[in-house]
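Lab notebook page, bench 4
Experiment: in silico fold of construct C2
Operator: M.H.
Input chain length: 388 residues
Purpose: comparison with the prior construct
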Amino acid sequence: MRVRPLPLGDHQVWPPVVLAPMAGITNIAFRRLCREYGGGLYVCEMVTTRALVERNPKTLRMVTFDADEFPRSVQLYGVDPEVTAAAVRMVAEEGLADHIDLNFGCPVPKVTRKGGGAALPWRRRLFARIVRAAVQAAGGLPVTVKMRMGIDDDHLTYVEAGLIAQDAGAAWVALHARTAAQRYSGTADWDAIATLKDALEIPVLGNGDIWEATDALRMLVHTGADGVVVGRGCLGRPWLFADLAAAFQQAADGFAAAAVDPRWRPAQRLPRLGEVAATMRRHAELLTEWLGAERDGCTDFRKHVAWYLKGFPVGTQLRRALAMVSSLAELDDLLGKLDHDAPFPVEVLGRPRGRTNSPGRVALPDGWLDNRDDDTVPTGAELDDSGG
């Protein structure tokens, strides 16, 4: 395994680690917090092409970046080639971002039911038209594709979609190695990432079940992928990017073979509860700064509390109070009541974080599976609002 920077247009991403866009999570505050720990590419929340073209105020606010954030990366969701092209052209001409990722991996029923997200690559001609339109409208900005393996085990699309994206000019393809039917359940099929890597000439990134830095290296050894996409593994643990940076540097310096040795462990941050509390305070402060109001920042922060405190010995009442915090002063008071010397709960390492659910039947438009070459834009699938 050779570990090298990930090419993205004129830029080289090092380490070859990408923060997956997550609705309500990867805003400018969370991205800054993660960037303070390590390098890589940090993608903002997914925005819809129609909302961007129509200059929806919420969407325009989501497409904001720190002055020192580079390359600026935005993920777009769209189902109409013309609207997608208009949105990409707007990003390019107005200098809104330096990289555009296209979402074809969302498994949420309200999206797939209308033919969007992970359902769309099944309609291969429409998929090709969207990716080609985005690349042609990008004015030289790199365009990449994020997708899943397919709708379900009987309707896999990832190899064909990867070849189509490559032919259309995509700079790379990232594969979440689950089907839409799996949602976030079970185990990611890393063999599928290896299959896609063997089929393509452009870089392939792997996504799925990267909970620790060692998982990222194991994925690269197993699949030959060019980089990794990290999602739920960093929830409540922005310092994971420090672990990833250290592990990838060790691999680049010649320790790659050790990635398959279960006895080898790169340096790993295991912060005591006091350091976690300081990170929580920093996160809430950044959210307050971004949203412009202390109450709004603290309210948005509430969803992160359980992730930060997972496994730590914190009483039920204190957890509940932290999850209802409304001001930074209140947060400071509650954080001061934590046992700052409590060691990191190593039993949670390597365990799933964030949402987990059961597999299920994928909601699709009537007749969606009947004709793969139908490139009609699905009715009502163009969303006019962004976010979760």
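Observations: The mean pLDDT is 94. The radius of gyration is 21 Å.
Next step: discuss at group meeting.
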